[in-house]
Amino acid sequence: MANPVQLMNRLFLLACAPFLGGLLWLFTMQTNVAVPQLHSSLAGGGNAAGTGIGGISAKLEQAQDAAGQTKSVIEKFYQMYEQSSVVTAELLKTAALQAARPAAVYDMRVTAKLGTPIKQASSGNIELKLFNLDGDRYNGYALKVNLKTDKAMKMVLGKDKLGSSETTLDAARRYGAVAGVNAGGFADDNTGRYPLNTTVLAGKYLTGFFPSRNDETFIGISTSRKLIGGKFSKQEDLDKLSPAFGSTFVPVLLKGGVKQPIPAQWQTSPARAARTVVGNYKHDQLLFIVTDGYDESGNSGATLAELQDKMVSLGIKDAYNLDGGGSSTLVWEGQVINRPSDGKLRPLATHYLFFR
């Protein structure tokens, strides 16, 4: 079966055939326009002059007829060209719709697995759909995100200052974002709250590159609006993925739809918790999952293994764990959707925001 590109090429050649045929005929047709030669003869007398004038008139009429025929050919040529252009445009439009159809069908299938959206927003920049997500032992939410332009999503610092922090709700309200999710981990010292290790903001390394250690994982979005992530020992390896922004946490959950080993510490400390994870589908749309946890004791919420299973069942390709526990936050239209396990929102160093 021909792929969409081959189909479009064939349709284009079919539509252009009349135009090409007309062009070939125009170049090969023989249209001779004779230029009359004028002869004057003083000795020929009036009859000779009359005969010469009559011959010239006949030649001019022939030239006019030939010019008229050439004009007619050119007009017909352009009519064919305009008709072919209209047909070609319609065929290319149809081919583009057919080429986009498999992606639309796939999107309908993955959305159907999530159920009916409880909230949604759409614009030229972004399409957002929010779903309830209930497991056997946890409750949560799924935010499906289609990034249409570079303006759809960004990562911001707490109060836009390194070392500062604020809640995801405050950051979303300050920026006028339609939705927001907590981002990477952080480390505190006596001067403030700082993003954990490798952090990219607006395409630049905020505090330098830090080789991955202890299962640390960089999670971000590339300049082509694709989810990127993993462990990196050298900056040039991460640079090849063209990160636009991103943060660091632990661990990698899925690669190519295959569950990755969960570090022992993250299987038990805590076993259950409020979680925030992010994954992507094969058509590069994103899925953020945020689960509730009622406290920090480890007895409520979801395990990472449960979320791996859930994402595999939803058709997720790659997935990563973001900061969880009291940091897990999902904001929609200026309201907190999930139930923070601290009992209140935690001020954070980094946030992912989404814009109409």
UniProtKB/TrEMBL annotation:
Instruction: Provide any one GO MF term from the record.
Output: hydrolase activity, acting on glycosyl bonds
Instruction: Identify the residues that the record assigns to the Phosphodiester glycosidase domain, covering every copy.
Output: 175-354
Instruction: Could you list this entry's UniProt keywords, alphabetically sorted.
Output: Glycosidase, Hydrolase
**Can you name this protein?**
Phosphodiester glycosidase family protein
Species annotation: Paenibacillus chartarius
Q: What is the lineage of its organism?
A: Bacteria, Bacillati, Bacillota, Bacilli, Bacillales
